[in-house]
Amino acid sequence: MDTTERIACSFLASLGYQDIVYEPDGNIPPDFTVEGTIAVEVRRLNQNERGRDFLKGFEESERPLLGKLKKFLKSFGLAETVGWWVLIRFKRPIPRWERIEHTLRQFFSSLEDSPHLKKITKRIENNFEIELLPRALPVDYVFEMGAIDDLDEGGWVIEEVEYNLRLCIEEKTKKVARFRHRYSEWWLILVDHVAYGMSEESRRVFRESVNIQHDWDRITVVSPIDPACHFDL
What backbone torsions phi and psi does residue 97 show, to the nearest 5 degrees? Predict the structure, then answer.
């Protein structure tokens, strides 16, 4: 059971249910059953990017790039005279590492022994930029990751919640379609990593301005900070 599922389980227990079974049918939907009759699916409600045939959370799509970039920066070794903080700034879709590695290596190689310690900005692609800031000694590596600026992340909370709710509901609806006949009632619990639990006023505005059609018996958005903070669509 992962963190998101544990939060959902805590939420179900807070409703007074005791007969909560995890993965009752194995590694297929549903994630839980409640009282043997209610099927419950769980998903992290996060910001996503949508492609032609995929849906990826922002953190999932940037993880491979960041892993390769950190390893790449360490390859320049320990600092002897100067050091730099590295900030990356990007918009999606994130360019593939193989496409930008050569340009990055040329750029960083030219700076290894640079005596001009001032802020430097380099555009690698139209949607990918590197900024370097001088580091005061003592430092470890010549180049160390300082910050990540995802220009697609954030935004007006209610709009982001609505947009990503639609994506997540659509994804889960397709996933459970061939299992729906097994249980008479289906719930979807979405653990909110976009707004982290909207205020009562935000919920009121959300309900007044947003209408999401679905065929679930219940959809509940739960705060990851406090499962007692939740609301139904």
Answer: -55, -40
Beta carbons of 11 and 227 less than 8 angstroms apart: yes
Which among 149, 153, 161, 146 is positioned nearest to 206, based on CA atoms? 161
> Could you give phi then psi for residue 141, rounded to 5 degrees?
-95, 155
Q: Which two tokens stand for residue 59?
A: 């953190």
The torsion angles phi and psi of 217, rounded to 5 degrees, stand at -75, -30
| Three-state secondary structure string covering 149-194 | EECCCCCCHHHHHHHHHHHHHHHHHHHHHHHHHHCCEEEEEEEECC
Crossing angle of the two packed helices 97-109 and 58-74, in degrees rounded to 10:
40
Judged by DSSP in three states, 109 sits in helix
Whether the per-residue pLDDT at 135 is higher than 80: the answer is no
How many C-beta atoms lie closer than 10 Å to residue 36's C-beta?
A: 9
Q: What pTM did the predictor assign?
A: 0.60
What tokens were used for 17?
Answer: 């249910």
Say which DSSP state 141 is in: B
pLDDT in tens, 137-179: 556 788 888 777 766 654 456 777 888 899 899 999 999 999 9
E strand intervals along the chain: 20-22, 32-34, 38-45, 48-50, 55-57, 83-90, 120-125, 128-135, 143-150, 185-192, 218-222, 230-232
Place of tokens 């389980």: 9
Domains of the chain: 3-47+155-232 (3.40.50), 58-150 (no CATH)
